[in-house]
Amino acid sequence: DGGITQSPKYLFRKEGQNVTLSCEQNLNHDAMYWYRQDPGQGLRLIYYSQIVNDFQKGDIAEGYSVSREKKESFPLTVTSAQKNPTAFYLCASSREQGRRTEAFFGQGTRLTVV
Amino acid sequence: RKEVEQDPGPFNVPEGATVAFNCTYSNSASQSFFWYRQDCRKEPKLLMSVYSSGNEDGRFTAQLNRASQYISLLIRDSKLSDSATYLCVVNGRNTGFQKLVFGTGTRLLVSP
């Protein structure tokens, strides 16, 4: 079955550590996205990628980095420069179908700084 | 001004009630509109796309008003299982690439 997979589901990080969140999709989608969600708040865009080897900053890119070396994969690194990384991270992918571009989400990674 | 704005709620309604949510968007070039549902601590899932002519799926009706730049979601005969956060999503064009923009969501609580 096609889908989008995020791992791990839960992640604990010590202060000052970099961590990488995995996102893989087998939907043959061109576009991929990373969002951050804080308790009781909406989704905020961190980075997005339209095509392999290209990505753009979203609204809250500081302290994060991404790569898009393969169409299927869009890993997110949360660096030590991100001052408040504890949040729910969601990866999504989409493919333009005419004028519709619905997004499919992974199950999310819950990151906690300890 | 936010690109997509929603009333955060919560909307507290009894079972069987009809409830409506609105969402406004600022980018007049937006072409695609969606409603997603998000349950607590879960990922958002597509509820329905919103078409210019309006569309209905069972108890759910979505409408688009391009002139006023808002979309709406109407839920009839509310069920306890409808309790969730409803996210408005707009496809905003950004230098040729359609970027998805999410509203902060409207929380619905349906009580017995």
Keywords:
heterodimer; A: 114 residues; mainly beta; seven-stranded mixed β-sheet; four-stranded antiparallel β-sheet; B: 112 residues; six-stranded mixed β-sheet
Structure explained in plain terms:
The complex is a heterodimer of chains A (114) and B (112). With 114 residues, chain A is an all-beta fold. Helix content of chain A is 0%, strand content 50%. In chain A, the strands form two sheets. In chain A, strands 2, 4, 5, 6, 9, 10 and 11 form a seven-stranded mixed beta sheet that branches. Chain A has a four-stranded antiparallel beta sheet with strand order 1-3-8-7, with no helix packed on it. In chain A, strand 9 and strand 10 form a beta hairpin. Chain B has 112 residues and is an all-beta fold. Chain B has no helices and eleven strands. In chain B, the strands form two sheets. In chain B, strands 2, 4, 5, 9, 10 and 11 form a six-stranded mixed beta sheet that branches. Classes of the chains: A mainly beta (114), B mainly beta (112).
